[in-house]
Amino acid sequence: MQLSVKYYLNAFNHLLFPHCCAICGADYIQLHDFLCVKCIHQLPLTRFLNLPDNPVEKIFAGRIKIHAAGAQYHFTKQSMMQHLLVLLKYKNNKASGLFLGNQLGHALSTADRFQSVDYIVPLPLHPKKEYIRGYNQATIIGEGIQQVWNKPLLKHCIIRLINTVTQTHENRSTRWQNMEGIFHVTQPELLRNKHVLLIDDVVTTGASLEACGAAILQIPGTTLSIASVAYTI
Asked: What phi and psi values does residue 6 have, to the nearest 5 degrees?
């Protein structure tokens, strides 16, 4: 079978500029791929997005009114998922966020419970933290979702007023107290009577998402759903 010129050009380009899987280092993936097929299949799916009353929804039960919530993957320490999120949040690797957003976007696009979503809204970072990091990781994930799911992404309709310190070692009650009143909706008329999907990288206690969701739900007629890349087991 005759091989095309494009095949030889791609092979030559790969020889000069080898492109490797971000997890296992395999060098046989295509230039536009981020992970090899083997590593993608090993990512720990939750299958929560089409499952009512899943563990992510239970986090918010009795706190704020949620239409649907879920996460695409389980998160554990020293795992492939932690590696990908570290690349995104601390290694300036936006490609990791776009890949994770693509994966979440494909799942959302086939989940019946999320089909009425009008807007995707990333959980905002405080401007100082975003300046230091260079970007908001939730926004990068949102851009990845939008690449595969035709929903508008609103990047600046909510702002974070207070730069809270890390709350890794705080319990749920303390985290919620620290988060009260720190989010402000700057374009309430845009969200009025809309179904808003609030997104983030990882759900742990859900305090930040809860506080931001509460601000969204103050707008008349809004419906709130929540989705994240990962859920901490």
From this structure: -60, -40
Q: Into how many domains does the chain fold?
A: 1
pLDDT tens string 70-123: 999 999 999 999 999 999 999 999 999 999 999 999 999 999 999 999 999 999
CB 147 within 8 A of CB 104: no
The answer to whether residues 70 and 227 touch, using CB atoms and an 8 Å cutoff, is: yes
8 A C-beta contact, residue 143 and residue 107: no
Reading across the β-sheet that carries 223-232, which strands appear in turn?
68-75, 223-232, 195-203, 119-122
The CATH number covering residue 53 comes to: 3.40.50.2020
* CA–CA gap between residue 205 and residue 132 (Å, rounded): 25
Q: 43-69 burial string, b = 16+ CB within 10 Å, else e?
A: beebebbeeeebbbbebbeeebebbbb
Whole-prediction pTM value?
0.88
Which residues lie closer than 8 Å to 167 by C-beta, 6 or more apart? 174, 175, 178, 207
Buried b (16+ CB within 10 A) or exposed e, 81-111: beebbebbbeeebbebbbbbbbbbbbbbeeb
- Report how far residue 200's alpha carbon sits from residue 141's, in angstroms, rounded to the nearest whole number: 8
Domain that holds residue 89: 45-232
